Amino acid sequence: MASGSRRDIYAETLAVFDERDDQYEPLTTPEVAQTLDAERRTIHKRLEKLAERGRLETKKAGSGSRVWWRNSADASSQGDHDQETQPRSETESQADDTSDGHRLAVEPADGSTGENHSRWQSQTLESLIDGLGIVSESGEYLYVNQAHADVYGYDDPDVFLGEHWKMCYSDEEYSRFQDEIIPALSEDGAWRGEATGKKQDGTTFPQEISLMASESGGIICVVRDITDRKENERQLREAREFNEELVENAPFGMFRLDEELRITYENPRAEEIIGLPDEKESSAAIGLDISELPPIVETGQSDLFKSLKHSETIEFSFPFESIYGKEAYFTGRAVPVHRDGEFDGAILMATDISERRQYERDLERQREQLAALDELNNVVRGITTAVIEQSTRTEIEQVVCDRLADSGSYRFAWVGSLDSAHDLETRVWSGCAGENDDVPPVRTLAESTEQGPVRKAIDTKRMQVIQNARQELSSGALRDHASQFDYSSLAIIPILHQGVLYGVLGVGSERPDAFAEAEREVIGQLSDVIGHAIAAVDHKRALISEEVIELELQIPDLFDTEDVPPTAGTITIERMTPLGGNEYLMYGRLPEGAIPVLEGLSERLQGWKDLQTFYETDGVVRFEQHLSAAPLTSAIADHRGNFKQGRIENGAFSATIQLPPGIDVRSVIGRVQETYPAGRLVRQQQVTRSAPSLQDLVNLLTDDLTERQRVAIEAGYFGGFFNSPRHRTGGEIADSLNIDASTYHQHVRKAQSKLLEVIFEEL
Question: pTM of whole model > 0.85?
Fold first, then answer.
């Protein structure tokens, strides 16, 4: 480890101060470096070493700078040190200094000199805990203490004497000394660091080594085996890495706050909590006061965090919307941290319980839905029973609204219908207490938008449901309506019976997720329950009413007249008898020459099935035409109307029908035009029936007949079964009705008995 001959760099450095007029004047590192023409870093190290030895004084002077000046006590005693001229051996001279430049020699207590001094010096060196070795300029060991021998695994220190110091290192480490360490030692006069030593048995060990160049050109070497320290450092490092990995991969968010509660660190989970996008390098929350984060401010719990400054551990649980707009719910705690008895910040841990909260909310919502569903079933059963007891349509609708509004699941209910101008009007309502109690909600909804839920329910004849109305409705007017009438969910249920739309039922609920699938299915049953009840009331009213709406309809181009024979006349239609399932039997008369026309219609028109003809008198033929899903007959039946008469002439079809008052005529025309676009209304008028018509009498007489009995006797009458002679046998009529002959005769006998009973006993 030879360093070569060299000057005393420390004396040279001190001379910069001593040669000034005022040797105690403070100097900066750049000033000393400029005087010595040396690097600032090198001079700074020398000045630090001299300050450690007490030769200089120092203090900070501004940010990042320092000044130095001579120690007055050291300067005054320097002359005495310069008088030390007693000759000494090379080993003794080198052994007087340790790696940090302090003297190793210890003066004996009795003040003896000479041999006693050398003996005391030798004892002092041997008592050192660290290994001490002194090598000559050529690199051979001149002195080694026992601790040095122990470090390298030798029993006798004398083994080292005269040997080169490279015996203590591998070839690779020796090259490192030559290339890096020795040049640094030559430059600075001292070097301290770590190396890898080699023991006697060839094993290696980590060592801490301090080297100092002696005045004679040799090197004083102090070594210490740091195997245990390295192991401790390794364990600490692994523990630190484990802790860091634990924190980095923790399933909860962890924040480090400084003494001002500013966020200085956040683990990846915390970044997710804050809402850090994947493409950002660092969170926008770093450096922000945790209590001033906008989402925490919104919770109103900012002051809670300020308790940390008073050494209080806090716990929190609140909804949290991060600065990136991510909604979540968190719980956690924050623990204050102290250093030297002073508050030094806090560690905050937060756990995202959003999924758990969502699960809890889902359970609660399911419980609410089950409770609402159970209550709704009871309400629907009660409504079904109650509407039967009502005698008018208004009473039916009002009892429905009252029962729904009185339940705990719904806020209000109302029924609306279309007037003659096809505008929506409110008929009845219950529980609709808005800003003005007499403002029915359906009017506002209808006027809000042409494409709103009410119009859509009318157009599609399907239930329309809106949940979270105040957030999800696109129309501002509809959102305002939800706020005005205090509801979150809304169901618009079309009231239908046999395809006829009687109006809509609106039901509002404060529950934001009301009308889920199961609840929707139950409340949807009210559509037919109410529709059936209204239809029954209308039918009863139609039977006893003297007023009817009479319509004349025409389909001008029912078929092409080019193939009509010249002998064809007018086909008269007298009766439409429903068979059920949208099947009908059409009865009438026609001239014999018109039979090809009727046969042609059966071939051309969809739904015209089997045709039966039989002669009534010369030149006049009766017919029975089986129809399937005929639009006009279906519309008449659905609206409780009466087919009065019809005819087919010159390719055109016309019919006169009667409907109960209040029926939506346009819906009837619309049903016909779906199949025959050219169909049109020729005449509409309200007429008074001065006396019951045959049909009215039949309706009254058939109140006690079953549907099968009524169809049997009606088919027999119009089919010629009761004529004399009979035009058709009971078996033939039975075939038309798709039943056997014995069943038909049984139905006819029972019907005749009931009709005769009415005629002779009640009229």
Answer: no
